Amino acid sequence: MGQISNRVFADTTEDSSTSSGHRGHRRTFEIKSPAASAGSYDFVSARPPGKKTNILESVGHLVKSCLGGGVVAIHESYKACGLWTSMGLTIFIGFLISYCMYMIAKSAQRLYGRLHIATMSYPDVAEAAIAICPFPKIRKYSKCLRYAVDFTICVDLFGSCCVYQVVICRTIKQLVEGTDTVTLEGNPPLRMYILMLLVPCILICMITTLKYLAPFSILADIFLLILAIATIYYGCTFSKVSMFEMPAFKNMPGLFEFLGVCVFSMEGVGATMAIENNMKEPQKIGRVLALGMSVVVGIVFVIGTFGYWGFGEDSKSPVTLNFPFTAFSIALKVFMAVIIYVTFALNFWVPFDLVWYYIKKRYPPTKYWFWERVYRGSFVIVITLIAFIFPNVSSFIGLLGSFCLSNMGFIYPAFIDLCLDWEYPGLGFMKWRLLKCIFICIFGTILGVFGTYTNFRELIRQSF
Question: What pLDDT does 27 receive?
Fold first, then answer.
């Protein structure tokens, strides 16, 4: 370890002048403690003072981060896969996602002790783990993994914005037409609603600070709880057969559609480090993940199960489209459109802020105000065009979950954890840590390859 401790690795992370919490301070990755004694570094005391979150507050942030637009389409993926298989896999995938999030947080805390750095983002953890790993031929690719994480985050969140546009437009179209069936056709057709939403989306994305948008995330949480309760009520009211008579499993394409949507609906690995960095007791991140992910899995399970059981093979996305035209359900539909409209801006802010860091280097600081708004508008136009071409919610969500989150949620955390385990504490009895990494990577690869292919094929079929 004597030679290793003298290695220094440059970090390309930004300085504190940048506005995004996704990036950190400019620093170098220098090993200052061997792995065996890394636990002696008190990273909590080394963190800057400020308001920190307790366990309950951290659980709330985690739930907000994990539950997104995918949950309103989970029932349709249950329909594609089969009820009982989906119910079992929801619990299994929820556990696996939670464990991978835990691996990222614990990997970061091990890196704090080795590098004497108090806070890190997910891209920081990815780069640092590879930069100090015991495999010399791999170290030179540390920046590549960082950029891969950045790219995946951007594709995932910009793609989510496309989904949100379609969800809003499907809801508006149903309210305008007053019908239970929402199709691509009509007068005007669904794609025309998507184009009409362009200007409102550009306007809300011109908001450059989160403080004006963040309060709406609390309303979104409340809405999701109400939505879950309403789904149970309407599901029990409209169900025509016993739950035991529902199909247990349908086919493999349906399975991969379900896996993609399910992962998308629950994955919050991108927010794990932001939550850990702001905790009063970050060593208790495991409790936060256990409690928070139990709530997330519970809501996804409830909406998926009762949404499919209640509305059967005629169920549509978002789940509110299946609700009857009563005063309460109409209010839910309207409120969902408004909440998801604001969520669109919240989701847009994070990846754009990341991309803007690289773009703005091309312009003098005096031109930032103008060019930032030009690029914001341009990105929204591209997002709208993609939503216009592929206006199918479930398959689009499944594609994002399969392509993006198979990497960011499973493969990257397992590989990072293995790199840190290799020398200390080692691979364990019968090399179980290596086998664990291989299992998670195989699962992520299967989901990434077959899930992406299946969902993309279905997206093309339903869009044209």
Answer: 56
